[in-house]
Amino acid sequence: MGFGLPKLFPQGLRCQRMARNPFFALMRAEVNDNMKKKIGFEYHKRSAGEEVPFEIFLKYSDEKEKSSEVLGRILSRLLTREKMTLLDIGSGTGEYLRLALSKARIPQRLSVTLLEPSTDLATRLCSARKLFPSNVFVNIVSDTFEDFTTGVLFDIILASHVPLAKDNVAKLPEIYRRMFKLLKPDGYLVIVLRGKDGVHQFRTRFKTKIIGRDYYSLTIDDAEAILRKIAEQLPLQIQKFNVKAKLHLPYPDDMRDVISVVEFLLNTNWKDIPVVIRDSILTYIRRRNGLFRQIDGFLVVRKIHCHEKLNP
Question: Quick one: pLDDT at residue 128?
């Protein structure tokens, strides 16, 4: 179910008022009944005041800092006019985009829509709104991209590490095509996804063991292949970048956080993983001293106006 921006989180609305907003209360009830199946437990708090596994993962990786610096440079190049609009799909805590914008040259007025399906994270986004640059006007929508509806077209759409289609490659072309429909002519789609790094290898190895069949985690190379196929029918220009980072788990000093990060990476509750696989996971982490190399890949895709000719 989609909500219009003014109804749900109008600009300047306080968190206290948001919590009493009937639209927000309705949305929370619907999420509790239906949406958790779509977005996963790893983006929900287990108890009040506790960090979600996604946030614990961010504490032990420098990926956010290094990746946001690259994204900032990209946005500096794309944000060239006043009153441009940006949609961030799967905003999380909002910190990644905020960091990128703090490092970017941005116009005097920029309108940003943060789309985040987790109500725990969306509530936190309301508090984080004031941390964005003063010339950035922020709207927050708690919904999945699949259910998101809007009459607005955007200059830029950002999709960073969003588990679209649940790693089902066959469904991605339709999702990317919908993103292009939400872009203005000459708008830009910015995709950020993992490369075939240590985290990718970990997920592939142990998700396969847990589900009992081959599992493949989507990478930036998969997204590029799909987008180049789409570009055979739509006029697109595609550029690719990457940045290296590392994840250093606090093994064995803080096993609670280690397990939370594993839960995030495998999208599975630790208690639901068979004991023999748990032991294998911890052995794998110990042998690597808790260190995993990370590669963030970037695709910057321009939707070329239909009247403009592509350069050969």
Answer: 85
